[in-house]
Amino acid sequence: MDTARSHRRRAALRRWLGIGTVVSIMAFVCIPTVVVFGVSVNPGEILSFPPDGFSLAWYLRALTYPQFQRAVRNSLWVTAISTVLAVTIGTAAAIALERHRPPGHRFFAGLVLSPLIIPGVVLGLGLLILAAASGWVGSPWLLVFAHILVALPFVVRSVWVSLQNLDPMLERAAASLGAGPVRAFFTVTLPLLRPGILAGVLFSVVVSFNEFAASLFISNRVTEILPVAMFNYIRNYTDPTIAAVSTLLIVATAILVLVADRIVGMSRILQIQGDR
Amino acid sequence: MAGMVLLAPSLLALAVMLAALGFLFQFAFRAFIPGSILVGGWTLENFSRVLRPLYLSYLLDTALISLYTTVLTVLLSYPVAYALARARSRAARSALLVLTLLPFFTGAVIRAYSWILMLGNEGFLNGVLVRLGIIPSPYQFLFTQKGVIIGLVHFSMPVMILILAAALSHVDPNYERSAQSLGAGPVRTFWTVTLPLSMPGIVSGGLVIFAWTCSAFPTPALVGGGRVKMIANVVEDLALEAFNWPGGAAFAMVSLAATFVLIYALQRFAPRLAGGHREVA
User: Fold this and answer.
1) Chain B: closest CA distance from residue A120 (Å)
2) Which of B40, B111, B195, B212 pairs with A57 at a CA distance of 20 to 30 A?
3) What ipTM was estimated for this complex?
């Protein structure tokens, strides 16, 4: 009896020890975000936490600072255009690699995923030198191009996973019922690929909106996107304006993640509990 | 044929990328002409700069910071990943997932900035440590290697947690149950069954994080404040501050070469260890 009880007590202790460890680690993960929120409402210029009052002055400054307004506009344009293009050409590439398997498809698959491993500063300096040689320096299209490259591996990967889970019998059924290849693609294949394509859109938006290293090299004051503008501001000033901008972005990201979770299901996108 | 048509736009984009890398490679072997973006004749001078003691110390710092970051990231991520893969409560699992993903989807600049706020002399960490009486006066975390490592660990954790959670969810819990039914306690079960079976995830995750950290840029730039330099910061200093594109290109090539070696190691060793385990993006 007694050993059973001490056994149970030890198991309970271990369980609480485990929970305590995970909670402290998650505190390490989350506290910086809380501190950003706190500093953003600080009335003073000093970056202190906890805040010594409540003020929305830094939000006002963040929203009315012309360089940030321009950078937000640039960011939204670059993200929108590069996402549309990356998702379109990435979906086409995934279909080609999974279904058509052209000669050399293994090599091409590696190539399509390669931007994932190329450091941002390497890509940025390479594109800067290429742009200087071909007269594209300062063009916003250079940014769009860089963002398509960094988003492409994510799009191809998520669409590819969807394609592998798609039963080819369904397309054959459509064909046997008289649908031509184009009609079968648009009425059967594409709707079934929706989760993969949506995941591709989500990753593409997040990766493009947050891209920093490559963008720093290929943008200037006029074309710079928000992360670059924030980086330059942090280097030059030490007031809580960036905390306010960060808070707004973190809240927007949280909404995006929650909506995406509702629509597709995060753990399916990330394949965490796939095979159990 | 249809396959090639569908692939063509992506391949075109990648061909331009390869052209850019080709230009970079070429510039690394060209002479720098101060005050001009034009380059001179062929030279190995840019690589001899890489080997100067000062610059060599930046490379060494990069390797050391990456090593510490990788080890700490694995240690801190494993318990969370384990909870994510094994917790019985659905609510706990999805709470962990959301809290892990939020920083994952937040940009690197914001996260580096949050560590400026955490580590400053007036910041949260020093405030807590001083108030608890652990240290008498604020400790200089900001602009030190320790501070950069803390920021990088925080930056790497979400990816590591996701990789480890994927690896752990491929470990069949029945193995653990049979070990326990054969008389192994929970601790022994962990060391002899769970940990070895999740080793492929640790190795591949560790290599990914090491490679990733080697090319870290905004975290050392902001938390290190110019006093801690990793290889990407040297590329920026040379290429954007000194307008020395050939010099920056040489360091960029070193960074790229290091990445290729690590990815090669990943592909060479991880699949064999993994025995067919699938990797997560």
Assistant:
1) 8
2) B111
3) 0.92
Residue B38 lies in a domain: no
Which residues of A are less than 8 Å from B115 in CB distance? Answer: 32
Map A4-58 to HEC letters. HHHHHHHHHHHHHHHHHHHHHHHHHHHHHHHHHHHHHCCCCCCCCCCCCCCCCHH
What number of other Cβ atoms are within 10 A of residue A54's Cβ? 8
Closest chain B CA to residue A39:
B117
Residue whose token pair is 């995970």: A22
The 8-class DSSP code of residue A167 comes to -
Q: How many independent structural domains does chain B possess?
A: 1
Q: Just give the CATH number of A66-239.
A: 1.10.3720.10
The average confidence (pLDDT) of chain B is 91
The pTM score is: 0.92
Domain boundaries in chain A? 1-30, 66-239
Contact assignment for A152 to B13 by CB distance below 8 Å: yes
Which of these, B55, B5, B15, B41, lies nearest to B237 by C-alpha position? Answer: B55
- Measured between CA atoms, how close is B139 to chain A, in angstroms? 15
Structure tokens at A175: 């064909």
Distance from CA of A177 to the nearest CA of B (A): 23
Encode pLDDT of A218-276 as tens digits.
999 999 999 999 999 999 998 899 999 999 999 999 898 788 777 776 666 665 443 33
Give helix A105-113 / helix B2-28 axis angle, nearest 10°: 50
Under 8 Å between Cβ of B121 and B138: yes
User: Which CATH number covers residue B212?
Assistant: 1.10.3720.10
Contact A126 B14 (CB under 8 A): no
